[in-house]
C-alpha cells in the first residue's frame, strides 16, 4: 500500500449543552461533505461510533456547559486537540439554555417534575448515573482556552465550510460579510 | 419477559457496562447495563442525562417569541417545534382558521422537515448498521464508510436531505431556526422563482424516495428472522389522524390502537390530551414516561412515530406512498408489526409521502398568495400538536392578559417512546448479550435498537433535574468558577 500523499486533519466533534443544530448545519455543507472527507478524518463525533476522543488536530464543540459531564468532556477535548473551535451561540455565550440562568435550579426542577400538568407522582430524578447539573449554564471559554469562535445560531453550512477550509489550509478562519451573523 | 430488567435487586454486586455516549443519534443519552459474574444481564436502562428547563424559563416571555425560541430545543426537527408553538399561538390571536396560503406554506415547511429528517436518519445515521451489519468494523460504521462503499446511496441521502432543507429555507428564511410561522399565519409566501427552484428537483426526489422504500423493504426480505423480531415490544400505538382516517402529519385528532390493531380511542381533540395521557418520573432519567391514563403505568405504554402512523391511519393521501403502505400492511400479515427495525421501512414510506406532498403543493397557486394572516377573538390557552418526524409532538401554553406565557407543557415525540425504547434495548440485551463476553459489536446491537426509533434525545432533554451532591468547578488557574448544587 502506498502512503497517502498528504496527512488528513484529524477532527473530533461533540455536542454539549446544544440542540444539535450546529451539527446539522455542518451537514448543510451538503455534497461538499464528500470533498471534505478527502481533507479530514473524523475521530469521536456524533456521526461516528468512536466514543473516546483521541489525539486530534482539531476539536469542534457545539453547546455550552450545563452539567459536570460537559465540563469533563470539554477538558478532554482541550487536552487531546491541538486547536479548539467553539461553534454557535451556545458554545460562544451559553445561547438559549443560558436563559435559565436568572432562575434557581430548584424552582425549575419543582416546575418540571412536580407542578407541570399530567404528572402521576412528582419525583426529581437523582440517580448517580445522571451527571450533576450546574447552577448556571456557562460558555466554553470560561473553563478552557478556545482558539476560534464561530457565532451564529447556527452558523450556516457555508460559514462552516469556509471556516473548515481555512483551517485545513493553515489559516485562521475568517467569515467576513455575508457569512458572519449572530442569529 | 424483559420488564424486570428495569431494576436489578442487588445492583451493588453487579458489573457496570456503559454505552456513553450513544452515537449516531441526535442528542445526549447513555445506556447502562448491569451484569452478574456469568455476564448475565440483570439491568438495562436508557438514561437521558441532560436538562434544559424550558417549560420554566419560557414563562414570563411574550407569546410571539415562543415559536422562534422553542426550536432551539432541537436542531434536527426545529420546524416541528416552530410549527407546534405557532399552532398553539394561533389560538391566542384567535385565528381559528388560517388563510389557505398560510396553511399551505406551513405544510410545505413541515413536509420539508419530514423529508430532511427521515433522510438524515436513514442514510446518515442508520444505513451503516443496515448495510454493513450491526457488528461490523467500527471504523467503517458511519456515513463516510457508506460513501466509500455505496457512493450512490450516500449521495442520494445527502441530496434528499438537501432538498428538504431547501424547502425549509425558502419558507422559513433559514435552513435551521428560521422564522416563517407567526401566530395567526406566516410572514412570507413563495415567489414564482422560489417555487420553480424547488419544482425542478421535485420529481427526481420522489423517484429516489421510491427507491429508498425498496431498499428498506429488501433489507426486511433478505433477513426476515432478524428484521421481524429485533427489539420487538408489543404495545399500543398513537398518532394524529386527519380527515377520513387519512394520514396527516400537520394536523388532526388523536387515535390509538391496541397491540392487535383494534382502535382503542379515536377522534380525540388535541385540547383533551391530558384526559388520556399521564406521565411518570423515574429517578434514573430526566425524560418522563408517558402512558395512557385509562390503562395505568403497567399496561398503558405506547409507541409513536413512523411505525405507529403508517399502521394507525386508514390510508395515505398520496398514491405512491399509499401503495407502499398497503404492501407494508400485507407483509406484516394481518396483525401490526411491532419490531423496532420496522420503523425504518415505515420511515421510508413516509419520506416518499413527504416528497409527493411537496411536489403536489408546489403546483398549488395558493403558495404564491398574499393573504398571510388571520386573527379573531383573543384567547388565553393554546394547544399545538403536530406529527414531528419521530412522532406526536404536544405543545400546550397559557398566556396572561399582558401577553406573557404563564404555563407551558411539552411532551416531545421521543418522550412518548421512552418506555418502548427501554423495552427494545432490554429485549436486545437479553437476546444478544446475555451470558456472553461483551464486545463493541454486541454493544452496537443495543444502539441499533435505539436508532430505529429516531430518538430525538436533544428534544427530550428540555426537562431539568439535579443531584444531591456538591462538586466544584475550577478554571485552569485554580479559581472557583462554579459550584454544583446540593439540593440547589
Ligand atoms: S447555537 Fe443554536 S443551533 Fe447551535 S446548538 Fe445552540 S441553539 Fe442549537
What would your notes on this structure say?
With 183 residues, chain A is α/β, with parallel strands linked by helices. Chain A has a domain at 9-99 and 134-168: NADH:ubiquinone oxidoreductase-like, 20kDa subunit (Rossmann fold), CATH 3.40.50.700. Chain A contains six helices and seven strands. Chain A has helices at residues 21-27, 32-39, 68-80, 89-93, 105-115, 157-168; strands at 9-15, 40-42, 56-62, 65-67, 81-87, 133-138, 148-150. The model of chain A has no long low-confidence stretch (mean pLDDT 91). By secondary structure, chain B is an alpha+beta fold. The two termini of chain B are 39 Å apart. The chains are: A alpha/beta (183), B alpha+beta (488). At the A-B interface, α1, α2, α3, α5 and β6 of A face α1, α4, α5, α6 and β9 of B.
Task: Set out the fold topology.
The complex is a heterodimer of chains A (183) and B (488).
Chain A: E1 9-15, H1 21-27, H2 32-39, E2 40-42, E3 56-62, E4 65-67, H3 68-80, E5 81-87, H4 89-93, H5 105-115, E6 133-138, E7 148-150, H6 157-168
Parallel strand pairs in A: 1-2, 1-3, 3-5, 5-7
Antiparallel strand pairs in A: 4-6
Chain B: E1 15-19, E2 29-35, E3 41-48, H1 54-57, H2 66-69, H3 78-92, H4 100-132, H5 143-149, H6 151-172, E4 181-182, E5 185-186, H7 192-222, H8 224-227, E6 236-241, E7 253-257, E8 263-268, H9 273-276, E9 277-280, E10 289-292, H10 296-299, E11 302-303, H11 306-312, H12 319-332, H13 342-362, E12 381-388, E13 391-399, E14 405-411, H14 413-416, H15 418-433, H16 440-452, E15 472-474, E16 480-483
Parallel strand pairs in B: 6-11
Antiparallel strand pairs in B: 1-2, 2-3, 4-5, 6-7, 7-8, 9-10, 12-13, 13-14, 15-16
Helix pairs in contact in B: 3-4, 4-6, 4-13, 5-6, 6-7, 7-13, 11-13, 12-13, 15-16
Envelope shape of chain B: globular
Distinct compounds present: iron/sulfur cluster
Radius of gyration of chain B: 22 Å
Structural class of chain A: alpha/beta
The helix/strand series of chain A, from N terminus to C terminus, equals EHHEEEHEHHEEH
Write down the CATH topology of chain B. Cytochrome-c3 Hydrogenase, chain B
Fraction in helix of chain A:
25-40%
Query: Strands across the major sheet of chain A, in which order?
Result: 2-1-3-5-7
| Alpha carbon gap, first and last residue of chain B | 39 Å
Number of strands of chain B: 16
Amino acid at each position: 500500500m502506498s502512503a497517502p500523499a498528504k496527512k488528513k486533519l484529524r477532527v473530533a466533534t461533540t455536542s454539549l449543552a446544544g440542540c444539535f443544530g450546529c451539527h446539522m448545519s455542518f451537514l448543510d455543507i451538503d455534497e461538499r461533505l464528500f470533498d471534505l472527507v478527502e481533507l479530514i478524518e473524523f475521530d469521536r463525533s456524533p456521526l461516528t461510533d468512536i466514543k473516546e476522543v483521541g489525539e486530534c488536530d482539531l476539536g469542534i464543540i457545539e453547546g455550552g456547559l450545563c452539567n459536570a459531564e460537559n465540563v469533563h468532556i470539554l477538558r478532554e477535548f482541550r487536552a487531546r486537540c491541538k486547536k479548539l473551535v467553539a461553534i454557535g451561540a451556545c458554545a460562544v455565550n451559553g445561547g438559549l439554555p443560558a436563559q435559565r440562568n436568572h432562575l434557581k435550579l430548584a424552582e425549575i426542577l419543582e416546575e418540571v417534575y412536580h407542578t407541570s400538568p399530567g404528572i402521576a407522582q412528582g419525583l426529581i430524578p437523582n440517580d448517580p448515573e445522571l451527571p450533576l447539573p450546574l447552577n448556571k449554564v456557562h460558555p466554553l471559554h470560561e473553563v478552557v482556552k478556545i482558539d476560534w469562535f464561530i457565532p451564529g445560531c447556527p452558523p450556516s453550512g457555508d460559514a462552516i465550510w469556509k471556516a473548515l477550509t481555512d483551517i485545513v489550509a493553515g489559516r485562521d478562519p475568517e467569515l467576513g460579510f455575508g457569512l458572519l451573523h449572530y442569529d | 419477559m424483559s420488564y424486570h430488567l428495569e431494576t436489578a435487586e442487588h445492583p451493588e454486586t453487579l458489573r457496570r457496562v456503559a454505552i456513553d455516549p450513544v452515537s449516531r443519534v441526535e442528542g445526549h443519552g447513555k445506556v447502562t447495563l448491569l451484569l452478574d459474574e456469568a455476564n448475565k444481564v440483570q439491568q438495562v436502562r436508557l438514561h437521558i442525562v441532560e436538562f434544559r428547563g424550558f417549560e420554566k424559563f419560557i414563562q414570563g416571555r411574550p407569546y410571539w417569541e415562543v415559536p422562534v425560541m422553542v426550536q432551539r430545543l432541537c436542531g434536527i426537527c426545529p420546524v416541528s417545534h416552530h410549527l407546534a408553538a405557532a399552532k398553539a399561538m394561533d389560538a391566542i390571536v384567535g385565528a381559528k382558521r388560517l388563510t389557505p396560503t398560510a396553511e399551505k406554506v406551513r405544510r410545505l415547511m413541515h413536509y420539508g422537515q419530514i423529508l430532511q429528517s427521515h433522510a438524515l436518519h436513514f442514510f446518515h445515521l442508520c444505513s451503516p448498521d443496515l448495510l454493513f451489519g450491526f457488528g461490523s468494523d467500527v471504523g467503517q460504521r458511519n456515513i463516510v464508510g457508506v460513501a466509500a462503499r455505496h457512493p450512490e446511496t450516500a449521495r442520494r441521502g445527502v441530496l434528499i436531505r438537501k432538498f428538504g432543507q431547501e424547502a425549509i429555507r425558502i419558507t422559513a428564511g433559514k435552513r435551521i431556526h428560521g422564522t416563517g410561522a407567526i401566530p395567526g399565519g406566516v410572514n412570507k409566501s413563495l415567489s414564482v422563482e422560489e417555487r420553480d427552484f424547488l419544482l425542478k428537483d421535485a420529481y427526481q426526489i420522489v423517484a429516489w424516495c421510491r427507491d429508498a422504500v425498496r431498499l428498506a423493504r429488501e433489507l426486511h426480505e433478505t433477513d426476515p428472522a432478524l428484521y421481524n423480531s429485533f427489539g420487538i415490544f408489543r404495545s399500543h400505538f398513537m398518532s394524529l389522524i386527519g380527515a377520513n382516517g387519512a394520514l396527516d402529519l400537520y394536523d388532526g385528532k388523536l387515535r390509538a390502537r391496541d397491540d392487535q390493531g383494534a382502535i382503542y380511542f379515536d377522534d380525540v381533540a388535541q385540547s383533551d390530551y391530558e384526559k388520556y395521557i399521564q406521565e411518570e418520573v423515574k429517578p434514573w432519567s430526566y425524560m418522563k414516561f408517558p402512558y395512557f391514563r385509562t390503562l395505568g403505568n403497567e399496561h398503558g405504554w405506547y409507541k409513536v412515530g413512523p411505525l405507529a402512523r403508517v399502521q394507525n391511519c386508514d390510508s395515505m393521501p398520496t398514491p405512491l406512498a399509499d401503495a407502499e403502505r398497503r404492501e407494508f400492511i400485507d407483509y406484516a400479515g394481518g396483525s401490526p408489526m411491532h419490531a423496532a427495525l420496522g420503523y425504518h421501512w415505515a420511515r421510508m414510506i413516509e419520506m416518499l409521502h413527504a416528497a409527493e406532498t411537496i411536489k403536489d403543493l408546489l403546483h398549488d397557486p395558493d403558495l404564491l398568495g398574499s393573504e398571510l394572516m388571520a386573527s379573531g377573538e383573543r384567547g388565553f390557552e393554546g394547544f399545538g400538536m403536530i406529527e414531528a418526524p419521530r412522532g406526536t409532538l404536544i405543545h400546550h401554553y397559557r398566556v396572561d392578559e399582558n401577553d406573557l406565557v404563564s404555563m407551558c407543557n411539552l411532551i416531545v415525540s421521543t418522550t412518548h417512546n421512552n418506555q418502548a425504547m427501554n423495552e427494545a434495548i432490554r429485549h436486545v440485551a437479553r437476546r444478544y448479550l446475555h451470558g456472553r463476553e461483551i464486545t463493541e459489536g454486541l454493544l452496537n446491537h443495543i444502539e441499533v435498537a435505539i436508532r430505529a426509533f429516531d430518538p430525538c434525545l436533544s428534544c427530550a432533554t428540555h426537562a431539568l433535574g439535579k443531584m444531591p451532591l456538591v462538586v466544584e468547578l475550577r478554571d485552569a488557574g485554580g479559581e472557583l468558577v462554579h459550584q454544583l448544587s446540593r439540593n440547589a
